[in-house]
Amino acid sequence: MKARVIRSEDLVRAPWKNGGGTTAEVAAFPEGSGFDTFGWRISMADVASDGPFSAFPEIDRTLIVVEGGGIELDVEGVAYRLDKASPKLSFSGGDITIGRLLSGPIRDLNVMTRRGQFRHRARFVESGVALLAEETRVAFLVALDGSFDVTLDSTIHSLQVLDTLMLEATQDLILLSGTGRAILVEIAPDQPT
């Protein structure tokens, strides 16, 4: 099984689609695709001020606060508080969304999939074992609170905080060990095959 570690310090920052901040692309499909052409995209953004989010029509989006005090998202007039107790929200990328920082800058993980092509799910995992859903084509493990070791096919992949392991689909058990949590993101075709 193919697996690749993507180090947080190697990520390259680029302007947001609306120019209001920066994002670091972790991975996208097809590789090299732009904001209007990706099938799926995983990125990390640094949010330093309040303001509108870029619009991504036809995109399903999950935002997870990974560092900082949190953010309140106003999605089409409904407020959602994302903080340590409840750090994740899934919403339509086409919805009018405004962010208001709760107590200083944050870093968030964004997972986006193009409706009709791909779908995703994101969940928190801790030490133990994980199993990917049968329809998963590609998965990502992002270390959150500390170092995290992922064992695949007898190979140990060591992740530091905010490093990502990208792996191909597998039905084998994935062994996880670490002192904190990680985020497991699974991407599958929108229509099961």
UniProtKB/TrEMBL annotation:
Superkingdom field: Bacteria
Matching SUPFAM superfamilies: RmlC-like cupins (SSF51182)
InterPro entries referenced in this protein's UniProt entry, alphabetically: RmlC-like_jellyroll, RmlC_Cupin_sf, Uncharacterised_HutD/Ves
PANTHER family reported for this sequence: PROTEIN VES (PTHR37943)
Protein name per its UniProtKB record: HutD family protein
Organism field: Microvirga splendida
Taxonomic path: Bacteria, Pseudomonadati, Pseudomonadota, Alphaproteobacteria, Hyphomicrobiales
